[in-house]
Amino acid sequence: MAQYQDVFRRYEKKYMLSEQQHKALMQNLDTYMTKDSYGFHTICNVYFDTASYELIRTSIEKPVYKEKLRLRSYGIPKPGDNVFVEIKKKFDGIVYKRRVQLSLDEALSFLTLSKQTTASSQILGEIDWFMKRYMPVPKVFIAYDRLALFGNEDANLRITFDQNIRFRECLLDPSKGSWGNHLLEPGKILMEIKIPGTMPIWLSQILAGLNIFPTSFSKYGNCYKQHLIYNTYQKGGINHAG
């Protein structure tokens, strides 16, 4: 049964860091930000898409509006543990994330077998509508090790650092472990700045001083472009006209 639900509205900026930039940045952030209670932890995701990867192919084209569906766990869950089912949308540069918490068993039954949950909420209704529209299926598992910080003056300012990003196309169940093939070259760290409004001046100055600039990077998108599309063609096909 759903325990609670969350709604997020924010801007998200991504940056690809070297180990040297990461170390220097952490030293600069020490007086402005604090590590969250999770510490250094693993996040597991299962991304859902249509048979022809319609959702990620649309996303890569950078439309004004795009959306995706995923199952997320913090750590490797056991079958009865709670996980999140999330719809993430982006419109005109603003990210909207809506999520509901279910047990892993219930979430997988809901997402893969269309079995209704014992809970009801507006967000579950939106997810159900999404599923009926797209008929999505599990496509890829992506995990990474994350450190998250929050602002001392504004807790809504969050910065996350993701390392060891890995993926797999089999055993798309987070309870099976966080193992997978590496997505990034060694030494690269993906940073995301999440904030409801304008970036603080002090943070902009720190980034500029370290020559850290925004980049466009989607974990699922890059996994698709670098691996999934190739593997799909090798297996015999995807119709990109669909």
Index terms:
242 residues; alpha+beta; eight-stranded antiparallel barrel; 10 strands; 37% strand; globular
Quick gist of this model?
The protein starts with a strand and ends in a 7-residue tail after the last helix. The longest helix has 17 residues, at 219-235. It contains 6 helices and 10 strands, in the order βαββαβββααββββαα.
Description:
With 242 residues, the protein is α+β, with helices and mostly antiparallel strands. It is built from six helices and ten strands; from the N terminus they run βαββαβββααββββαα. An eight-stranded antiparallel barrel has the order 1-6-5-4-3-7-8-10, surrounded by five helices. The radius of gyration is 18 Å and the shape is globular.
Q: Topology, please?
A:
Elements: E1 5-17, H1 19-29, E2 33-35, E3 41-49, H2 54-60, E4 65-74, E5 82-91, E6 94-103, H3 104-113, H4 122-134, E7 137-151, E8 158-168, E9 181-182, E10 189-195, H5 201-209, H6 219-235
Antiparallel strand pairs: 1-6, 1-10, 2-7, 3-4, 3-7, 4-5, 5-6, 7-8, 8-9, 8-10
